[in-house]
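hey can u check if this looks right to u? its 161 residues, i copy pasted from the old doc so theres a chance i mangled smth
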Amino acid sequence: MILKQIRISKRLSQEQLAQMSGLNVRTIQRIESGANVSLESEKCLAAALDVNIETLNQENIVMDKTSENWKNLPILLKVWFIFNFLQMRPIRKTAEKMEVYGHSLGFFFCCLGLMDEAALVGGLMMLLTGYLFTFLKWQGDKYQIWFEPTSNNATSQSKGH
C-alpha cells in the first residue's frame, strides 16, 4: 500500500489524515508500517485522500538499484534521473512534457531575444533543457527504466473514485 506516499504528496500529517478519514492516528501508523488493513478502513482512507482503493493498494514501486538495467546505466545518467525526477519512479510522460516545454519556451524566449539579450540567454537555457530531456528520454528507453502507472488506475481515477 502506498498510503504514506499519497499522504505526503498531499502534504498531510498522520493526524490530519486520521481526522479527515475518521480513523485513529495509531491505525494510520500501523497501515503505513505495513499492517493489514480492513476494507472499511481502505474506503475511509480512499475517500479522505480522493483516490480509489486500487490506487491505495498499488505496490510501492521503487527503482531497483540492484537490477541489471540500473547497474548498466552510466553514473552521469543515474544522477540525472534522480535529480530531474526527484523520485525513484521516473515516468516517461514527465520527460516528454519537459522536452516539449523546454523546446517551446526556449524557442519563444529566443524570439524575444531579438529585443532583449536576457531573454535570449533564458531561451538558450530552455532549449538546452529540452535537449537534455530528449537525451534523458532516449536513455530511459535504451535502459528500460521507466515506471508506467497502470491504465486501470488512471481509468478509475478519471471516474472520480
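The mean pLDDT is 78.
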